[in-house]
TrEMBL record, chain A:
Gene3D superfamilies: P-loop containing nucleotide triphosphate hydrolases. PROSITE patterns: ABC_TRANSPORTER_1, ABC_TRANSPORTER_2. The lineage of its organism: Bacteria, Bacillati, Bacillota, Clostridia, Eubacteriales. It comes from Fusibacter ferrireducens. GO terms for molecular function: ATP binding. Belongs to the ABC transporter superfamily. NCBIfam families: oligo_HPY. SUPFAM superfamilies: P-loop containing nucleoside triphosphate hydrolases (SSF52540). This is ATP-binding cassette domain-containing protein. Keywords: ATP-binding, Nucleotide-binding, Transport.
Amino acid sequence: MYERDPKASDVLLSVRGLKKYFPIKSGLTKKTVGYIKAVDGLNFDIKSGKTFGLVGESGCGKSTTGRTLLRLLEPTEGEVIFNGENILTYDRARLRQLRTEMQIIFQDPYSSLNSRMTVGEIVGEALLEHGMVKSKKELHERVVSIIEKCGLSGYHMKRYPHEFSGGQRQRICIARALALRPKFVVCDEAVSALDVSIQSHVINLLKTLQDDMNLTYLFISHDLGIVKYISDNIGVMYLGRIAEMAEKNALFDHPMHPYTQALLSAIPKSHPLDKKEHIILQGDMPSPANPPSGCGFHTRCPKAMAICSREIPVFNAVGENHYCACHLYNP
Amino acid sequence: MSEAIKKKQEANAKLDARHKIESPWTIAFRRLKKNRLAMVSLFLLCILALSAILADVITPYDRDQINLADKEVRGKVMELPIKNEAPSSNFILGTDELGRDIFTRLIYGGRISLTVGLVAVFLQVVIGVAVGSAAGFYGGIVDAVLMRLTDIIMCFPFLLIAITVVALLGPSIFNVMFALGLLGWTSIARIVRGQILSLREQEFMEAAEALGIRDSRKIFKHLLPNVMAPIIVFATMGMANAILTESTLSYLGMGVTPPTPTWGNMMQAARSIYSLQNQWWLWIPPGFLTFITVMSFNILGDGLRDALDPKMNR
């Protein structure tokens, strides 16, 4: 079992038993006929000032997790403990206050900026809304300082989003999220929509800002290379659950879960003479509306055993700070 | 970094700083300017609007003035109205059946028609936007109730209701405006609701939620500016519609009542076959102006739709 103190002093955010089910409604009466189990019981901790990477294929519930943590989606069950308090019990007013401490950066830099507002308005809006600035001059100064930190110039303030490139737009999104000086930022596929060369710029910017402002990231991505570069700890998700979670080097050097092993074997080799075994998984990920019994991965697992289709594996410690949900390692 | 590269970067930065800022509205206007037909319509409408505003200055006679002339009737000289006179140098578009100058009444009629159109469309937009954005933004039961209400009002046969209203309240310019405004907002409510439903799912709205932006600001600052384009197009086309409907009602005697002139009630002259055949100046000028105005509004609306469509490239 995953047992750690969610209120430990170095932990900024803890998630316990988080579930998000989307009801499937059908018919004239909108009767609920089933649930899509997008997130089905997550447990993890993110230490203050560190980056937690969440990887998995599309549809495995990564983005839903990110949005649920911020209560952009209301979770079905579980706890999200931020700064020692369960934020799922917050009412509207307190939730609004919490917005200044938790922020999100989205994947698509095009649809995530309002095309009718100038950059200055976009970045400064939340500062005004939360009464964090007293005068127009102070607002201007803070907006300029944050957009300069994000690699744009002060004179960009009066421009509209359509006048920027994708990478610049993502910098605006970052500036908007960081203007409130949050402690915790969810980066939901923040660089996936960008060119590879721009990706590295933005990733490095995120890293610099993390050091400068003492930020804690939840970095959601499907790109293992990027996650390895930016994260301290990594969780591998499959079908709404975390399959394996470890410190990044431990995960990349000694993957335990068969799914992680298959994922890592899919990274292109960096040298043509490297010998690497390719584990090719058969079939597609099952539908989260109708997940297989027992371990969600048993339908594609090369090492599946009889027990795998019967029992859900427990999320157990298999090493120091290394957790894995697989019957292979169950005592 | 070598000197040359540094210099080039500095030059680029300078160039970037001098970049002319264009808001989405400026771009739309630039595109509209390229549409010649729409610009001609805009020009015509400006002239009409200007003449309506300056009616007192540019008209040669008073609006309801009955022009008299000495005439010999059975040996006696009497002052009688100059009725139904063909255009001449005194009355450039002739006089009507009471001896009033048609050109003067035409200009004043334009004032009434444009005012009725403006007020009616303003009412339509205010009601339509309020209903549509509330329904789209809040969804659920609010949406269901408001949209069923819209459906019900859409089912009303407009002319029948308008005539009933007039029959109950008596024909007047205000009743026409209100009938038009209170019954015509349904399509704009639907457009706004649809747009807001799709905008609500975009990531910038999720970002606004994550930033803790209040609902009122989300609606007025984030959503409505993004639905302005279809609202403007609708309002322009709606003007054409309102002016046409006002003419119809007035022609039927259910709208603006004489002596106040409108293009509609001036065309009543065409109800008599004699006038239709022999006195063209009674009904062709108001008919022609109605046609030009409605046409211009429609063409301008079309042009605006093309210019405001973000999917069209410059």
